[in-house]
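Protein 1 of 2
SEQ + STRUCT:
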Amino acid sequence: MHQFPFGSALQTLIQAPLKNAHVFILGVYASAVHARWLNADGSTRVAALAIASEPCIFWRGEGEAEIIKSINVPPAAGCLVVPNAGMNGPSGNALDQLYLEPLGLTRADAWLCVKFRLFINTLIEELRLFLAPVIENIDR
C-alpha cells in the first residue's frame, strides 16, 4: 500500500454513479491535502507537502485544519500547519465557480470521477521508457 509522508495511506476516491446526473466530470487524478511542514525551530521546511488523500473528488479545501491536525508527526520532525491560502481545494473551487455555477448546476447534479490508476500507470510507463537507456548502461 502506498503512503504519504508520516504514514497516511493513499486512498482511492470513487463516487457512485448518479442516475439523475446532468453532467459527467472526469478528472485526471485525485489531489491531496497539503500542509506546511515546520522544523522544530518554527522555520519552514516545506511550504506545501502532500500529507493525505483529499477526502472527496474535487475537494474544495473544507476541514483542512482538522485533517492536518490528525496526522501524527514525531516531535523531533517539527509540525504540520495549514499552508498558504489556495494550496488545498483549488480544483474543486474552480469546478464549482467556473463550470457548474455558470451552467446553473451544483455538485448534486454532477457525477464526478477521476482516473487515478490510468494516470499512475501512464506515469510508470513514461518513467520506464525514460529510464530504459540508463538501466541498460548500468547492466553493462
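Protein 2 of 2
SEQ + STRUCT:
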Amino acid sequence: MHRPGTAAIGFAIEAAARRNTGLTAVLAWGAFDVINERDTLPLVSETGALKDEEHRVLSEALADWAQQYPEVAIKQELVRERPATALIERSQNAQLVVTGSRGRGGFAGLLLGSVSQMVLHHASCPVAIVRAPMSVSVVPQGVVDHGDHAP
C-alpha cells in the first residue's frame, strides 16, 4: 500500500471546505498490498496488525489538514477491497471523488493508473485526479554537464 497522496488530500479537503460539507477519506487495500515494501506474509496473516498500520498511516496523512480546516468534518474509512471498487461504490453518495495518481515519471507518468482509469469511467459523480507536483531541476543556462569530470 502506498502512502496517501498529500496533493489529493489537500485538494479534497479544500473542495469540501468550499462546498461547506464533510469529507470521507477512504483507504482501501487488497490482500497483497504492502506498506513500505515490507514482507507480505505477516501482513496477509495478521489482518488486525495491517488495519492498525493503515489507520495510523491515514490518520497521519490527515492530521495537518484537519488542523488547517477544523470546519471540515473528516470521517475515515478503512476497507479491505480493491481501491477502485471502494471508490466507485462510495461515489453513489458523493458530490466529488478525489483520487491521487502515482505517476512513475517520464512518459509513463503522463498516463493514468488503473485505479484512476476505473474510477474516472465508472463513478456516479464528478472525479478529480490529482497528481503530486512534479519536481523541476534548474540547470544554469549555457552549462552542460556530461558527467566526465577530470581529476
